[in-house]
């Protein structure tokens, strides 16, 4: 596995892989890898000859009161995990390598950047779009794989790629979960024992909604919110139900697939989760 800390070095490696006739599958990460990330690597390997990972904690997607300095990091452990997965190359830039002095160009999808998590975290999705665009430009992948846990991010990136005619196919991968149902996240390690014991309520609330059809979008929001409110450690930031394709707001009876999106804080750790609800689908 080639470790490439600079843009020049990763471009050289991409050129070498291309010269060997290989297609490129990209998996962008912020590191501190877990099984969910490794599943993304395996999914990329199903769709491309060579998997390229990136490890970069992107400062532009963190707000001034967010946890950039406390985001967990363990590069050597991450590299060992990627080697075991057969990843061909990993791009590990510093912030100074990614953002040149005076750089202020940004990428945005205004219809999606100010809603849901974007409303809770102003500027977050501009930071995501800008860094993902840069990573696509640097690595020129054929496909890129993102997890469905970050459902709004996945929809955002798909629209960005479509609107800007980026020549990369975006593949979503189902949310990876712990045995108790908690969605895997690098932030989970920051939960206290009591918070970690309480956090699976997100999945429990979503699973209950999935298997108990309700007459309206509003009823789903009420039911999920009431379920979460049973746990005193939950600080509910957002419970929303949206169209599963374009994330437009829904009301009344559901006539097409919808996604329930949660943002819940446990202390200063914000967790997200999601579930697609399909009207008329047998949920028994």
TrEMBL record:
Binding-site residues for (R)-pantoate, renumbered to this chain: 61, 153
Residues reported to bind beta-alanine: 61
Gene Ontology cellular-component terms listed: cytosol
Pfam families on file: Pantoate_ligase
Domain of life, source organism: Bacteria
EC number: 6.3.2.1
UniProt function note: Catalyzes the condensation of pantoate with beta-alanine in an ATP-dependent reaction via a pantoyl-adenylate intermediate.
Protein's name according to its UniProt entry: Pantothenate synthetase
Organism of provenance: Planktomarina temperata RCA23
